Records
---
Amino acid sequence: MALTRRKKIVFALIAMSLSFFAMFLVLFVADLFLHSRAERSAGLNRYGYRGPVVARKRPGELRVAVLGGSTVFGYGVAWNESVPALLEPKLRARLGRDVSVVNLGYNNEGAYSFVPNLEDFAYMDYDAIVLYEGYNDLTGDESVNTSVYRRNSAVFRLTGYFPILSLYLDEKAMMLRNGNNLNAAYDSARSDGPTVFRPTLAQRTSAGAMETVSSMARALDAQLSKVATDQRASLTKVSALGCSSPWINYCESIAAAIRFGRARGDAVVVGSQPTLVLEHARDVHSKQQAMLAEMVRSNFSSDKGVVWADLSAIVDLTAPNVTFDAMHLNPEANAAVAAGLVEPLASALAGAGKQ
């Protein structure tokens, strides 16, 4: 019996829907497979943060979110060798209670990303936040770092699931175009733009990767020579927070994140990264962090739930057994940073009434 035109249309729509669903299912399974391979090495888990997926918050559990760039993410080390992962057992021992620490850092993100990331992961019901970033904002107001990597994904914005299949395919294509050398591909893509630190889906701790990151550190120092030269002329611009150019946007972003956390009742720790050692970077970074410390002191000193943690001298970035590029730390140095955050966190938690 011949099908009517209406039935043909219905069957065609059903067939198209089934084909679409089957294709979606295949892609979703492939994406989950890639996440399972990547989340314990140098990638993000299916919800867009580093390390295994955190379980639902348990009764009595204290949860800490650590935000920043590649030094929080743990560029060059495994997920359990990053500062947030090493902080968790130290804080648990100090407080004598159940603690989980979530790594919300991502490479190349600066202070601008703090509030968006805090908003996106508010469902985690964190009790304290650590704001630990300055390196990625050193170029200042003339070139504000507005990177919020996860929000580039429409799927993440809509669902909270972070797909990585497209990144995997993009990197495969880049490798094919660059003689199977992904480091060279990223170097080529960077050209004369801002210095960017990106992990691949696999653990990138080979000698070639280290050489690439080391060259990026030198490139950053060269970029900052202009900031150091032009800074004196730009210091006439001052914000309501007391911060002056070229780091008005940086200070305002940190202040916004502090206010966001305190409005929720969260304890807040603002940490200063180890002082950079390359000539121009050291000068610019020291001035930036001095300004940040003064901003926190003058605007939040009356709030016991906000604590400044000066970790500028916690490790010596000139020591070859501490860092492979004068910026990113090895596991032992990350452990020292984690230890340096314990007491400031304990103090901020007590001040916020979270202990």
Note: Residues 62-166+202-351 form a domain with the Rossmann fold fold (CATH 3.40.50.1110).
---
Amino acid sequence: MRLTDKILGDAVSEIAGDDAISVVLNLKNKKNVSEFILAKKIKKEINETRNILYRLYDANLVSFMKKKDKQKGWYVYYWTFNKSRIKYLMSDIKKKRLTTLCDWLDREKNNNFFSCSNNCIRLDFEQATEFEFKCPECGELLNHEDNEENIRKIKTNIEKTKEELKKCSI
């Protein structure tokens, strides 16, 4: 699998947030980039840049080394992107998404759902019984909801995620 900026951005965004994408793109294919230079390049304050770098570090997407500045007496951190880790990260994301989709499919298949004509709220049978089949938002009568379309969409997403997982499998 070829690692494009889009694929990289999607994975990084899911793990560390959208603001981390610019950091990773500026670290990509470089080694030991000063956090001060990085902050300047992404046009963010140093504290905000460090926060993003720590989130990336927690996901093991970046590593650092620190050196003491002899003139100023404080430590400067130099950061490197761990490109090899992204494949594992993407695989983990796809596995979690697949688990979530399968759980959601199971819930959709094994429950009856009810909603009012205003679609205020969607309740399963037990919840609808508690409200005596009246919408707790607007008071209208709750009607049985046909969830076959939801089930079909979830199944499609499961198949798509399985294919994506095959592409990035380790």
Note: The mean pLDDT is 91.
